[in-house]
Amino acid sequence: MISEEMANRINVQINREMYSANFYLALAAQAETMSLRGMAAWFFAKHGEELTHAMKMYRYLIDQDTAVRVSEIAAPEAVEESVIAMFEQTLAHEREVTVFIHDLVDLAHSEKDHATSIFLQWFVTEQIEEEATVNDIIGRLRLFGDQGQSLMLIDNELAGVAKQIGQAASAATA
Ligand code: FEO
Fold it and tell me: Rounded to the nearest 5 degrees, what angle is found at the Cα of 95, between the Cα atoms of 93 and 97?
């Protein structure tokens, strides 16, 4: 059993993960309108990942015999309209999520809640990977350009990455 405070805070984080899913869906839709199919697929794959993050927390609360509160999800912030700005917005968002996850870890440590602390380690590692991936995309867009052939190459590359994310997600739920 976890503390009431911890249960509340994880419930808030479930809501934030659902928000993140919608945020990525809005980015996917924006990429679709720009005919960037690879980027749209990548953002859509991230949408799916965020839902799995929320469901991991959902399952953890259930396993800890704690109530899950499903609450209203705020509309995602307006999506930027240039390719680099969309990824910069993504990075800023993920950095914010990292802070929230670290805050949860701090609470787990202060409560000597070892179970939640171990549970959250997966999210700490996931955030490192998520920030690094987006940073890398921004770096490549800056280096090679966000128009013409370089944009097409990066878009194609992200289509491949999106496929891998999809395959990894199916393997994890099989
Ligand atoms: Fe659920 Fe993108 O972190």
Answer: 70
